[in-house]
Amino acid sequence: MSASEQTNWQSVHDEVLRRIHTREWKPGDQIPKEVELAEQLGCARATVNRALRELAAEGFLDRRRKAGTRVATHPVRRAKLDIPVIRLEIEGRGQKYGYGLLLTERRTPTPEICANLGVSAKSDMLHISSLHLADGKPYMFEERWVSIDTVPEIVDADLSKISANEWLVLHAPYTKGDISFSAVLASELEAKILRTHAGAPLFLMERTTWENDAGITSARLLFAPGYRMHSAI
Amino acid sequence: MSASEQTNWQSVHDEVLRRIHTREWKPGDQIPKEVELAEQLGCARATVNRALRELAAEGFLDRRRKAGTRVATHPVRRAKLDIPVIRLEIEGRGQKYGYGLLLTERRTPTPEICANLGVSAKSDMLHISSLHLADGKPYMFEERWVSIDTVPEIVDADLSKISANEWLVLHAPYTKGDISFSAVLASELEAKILRTHAGAPLFLMERTTWENDAGITSARLLFAPGYRMHSAI
DNA sequence: AGAAATATTATGTGCAGACATATTATCGTT
DNA sequence: AACGATAATATGTCTGCACATAATATTTCT
Questions:
Q1: CB-CB: which of A84, A179, A199 is closest to B199?
Q2: Burial environment of residue A143 by CB neighbours within 10 A (0 to 12, 13 to 18, 19 or more)
């Protein structure tokens, strides 16, 4: 290796990654131990440790005490999906964000929601439907249930101005969450709201959050046809 | 805070997260500087630094030199999607994995693939179609293009036994990748292959990878109806 | 040989101290 | 007041050292 430049953890990171990419170190290979690498690259062990730790977190390396460090055989690539507030996602693309509250009602949850959140069938809940727009066009249709037992303050929130999600982000942080993605067909009603036709393929995102096992909210987000979620890996 | 226990970076991490969750520190609030926190919690600044750094990476904190550390106002939650090899995903659920090669042909790419990968229209490429099964049922239909210019060894690979993706993972690591998800309708052909009906909603994953700007592969993965991708946040 | 106790080892983490760097705050000049 | 130079400061990182911990290797005992 060239060396000569300054050795910081980032450069160690890059150098190790380079050796993996050039297949100097192949999947399954054991790489030199931290002390040796530190000596080779002219830096402290702590610096090498930091670099290798990050590489392990990124999925390129497998590390085990005493056993050493080896190149991952099945580099599970981790796509980091940023799940921003919809408003910021739209505004971030330079589009104009719009939001409309379609319905709020206070009632007991459906059996499905009970199962999702793990709450009783007699729970006090808020059911909210809303539509998010980008440049005036329907972008995402949201159907959400919020537990009033867990987040009583929600009943005083003005959900005609700020979306339930944004309100929750600011007032009810969660400790645990679940998110899933799938493809579904638009129903008659959904199609009408999203201004498309029944049977159109819709991207569905379902999110459920808890605060220490107390269910907060469960939401079903239906994106208008053409939506693509993407990410770098 | 209680304290008394041993102070390691993990406990600092958890304590700070607790203060955020209990809204002792609210979104937008500035939190004590590292030196103060270290004093409060009875540990070295390096330890606090490690904890806060992780929390910032997780999206709970915003940190800036001189400006200090504050609780994120819009906690962008990062869903970490593990993108494993399909075989491992299926076997990991205890199902039996099956794989069938449907077609391989060596030809020039379609304009769409050219655009995706950024290669010339006269590139030498391998076009591969295959079907992945779980417990004998169609699970995912894959249509892939591999650049022979970038990965010449692919022509000697036996793709009837091992999927192109698995072969690539082992023999052609990438430095850059792009992944996107969307919902589409099954075409007649796709429906036939996945043993469903035309017009069924399919979850589509598109992946493209490069090695230093040299396009490696572009793949279109169509999952059978009912597929759900999920993750904890 | 086989099992249990013990030693060895590579990574994991903590610490104090130092300097680097990006930003903000302040001061002086016009 | 506006502007540019300068000082102050919180985080970012590196270093050398020490000890903890988990896993493996070795030895000892039956």
A1: A199
A2: middle
Q: Does residue A147 lie in a domain region? A: yes
- For the domain that residue B45 is a member of, what is the CATH number? 1.10.10.10
Please classify residue B55 by burial: count the beta carbons closer than 10 Å to its beta carbon, then call 0-12 exposed, 13-18 middle and 19+ buried: buried
Indicate if A155 and A191 belong to the same structural domain. yes
Does A91 lie in the same domain as A149? Answer: yes
List the pLDDT tens digit at each of the 233 positions of chain B: 433 456 799 999 999 999 999 999 999 999 999 999 999 999 999 999 999 999 999 999 999 999 999 999 877 777 888 887 899 899 989 999 999 999 999 999 999 999 999 999 999 999 999 999 999 999 999 999 999 999 999 999 999 999 999 999 888 888 889 999 999 999 999 999 999 999 999 999 999 999 988 999 999 999 999 999 988 88
Question: Are B68 and B30 contacting, i.e. CB atoms less than 8 angstroms apart?
Answer: yes
Note the ipTM here.
0.85
Question: Cβ A211–B81 below 8 Å, yes or no?
Answer: no
Judge whether A113 lies within some domain.
yes
B8 strand C contact, CB < 7 Å = yes
Which range marks the domain in which residue A168 is found?
86-223
Amino acid at B37: L
Residue/partner pairs of B31-36 with CB below 8 Å, 24 or more apart: B31/B61, B31/B68, B31/B69, B31/B70, B31/B71, B33/B68, B33/B69, B34/B69
Pair A208, A120 in one domain: yes
From the list B27, B78, B84, which residue is nearest A170 (CB)?
B27
Structure tokens at A130: 């809303």
Cβ–Cβ gap B184/A178 under 8 Å? no
